[in-house]
Amino acid sequence: MVRVIQKDKEKLVFSAEIKESLANAIRRSALEIPILAIDDVEIYKNDSALYDEIIAHRLGLVPLKYDGDLELREDCSCKGEGCSKCSAQLKLQASGPGLVYSKELKGKTDVVYEGIPITLLRENQELELVATAVLGKGTEHAKFSPGLVYYRNLAEIEFKNCEACKECVEACPLGLIQLEGKKASVKDVWKCDMCEACVVACKKKGSGEISVKPSKEIVYFIESFGQIDAKEILSEAVKALKLNLKKVEKA
Ligand SMILES: [Zn+2]
To answer: What's this model's pTM, rounded to 2 decimal places?
Structure first.
């Protein structure tokens, strides 16, 4: 059974009884989704304090919007040389004084977040460059990854001989334990990362005991960097995994 805990464009959290090996395979497959990122920068003018290489590196990490009209460079008819079917050009022209932000990249595609600082220019300083964005996979470079995918076991928490001393309530760094009368319970148990602070606090006082164990259920977290929705990361990762399995089957 799959239980959706949180679902919006940026974040998807669900719990499911799936094997860890499968959960991990899906996590790794997220790095096989083609994502657009700046891969080549031609710098015409850079008066800023940052080296050209640092500027290029920062530009590579700026998430870009992608509407699916490009091909992977290795699959393109240009055979990897680079053409308008497999790359998108962006221009940046800025002059100081002031910070240069990602929104100043103008061209075939838009940036996801407009307020990422690139560099600082003083008066009379200029920055002028042309960047080329291509599709790539997270397996070749982290800038092509669509987001963060991670999981952990859902915690199974049990309170024994509880004396309602409130020690565990105060000890939980995430504030997940609540006391109703003399009964302790856990709200949003999926948030529990099994730090066992409550176990230690409980042991110090009285005869109560708390046990925290990993259950069979897995909580899955997908956080998008903004290029594609969190839901899409999951479905595309599953697609990539299936495609890889098909290749194995064929071989
Ligand atoms: Zn091409």
So the answer is: 0.85
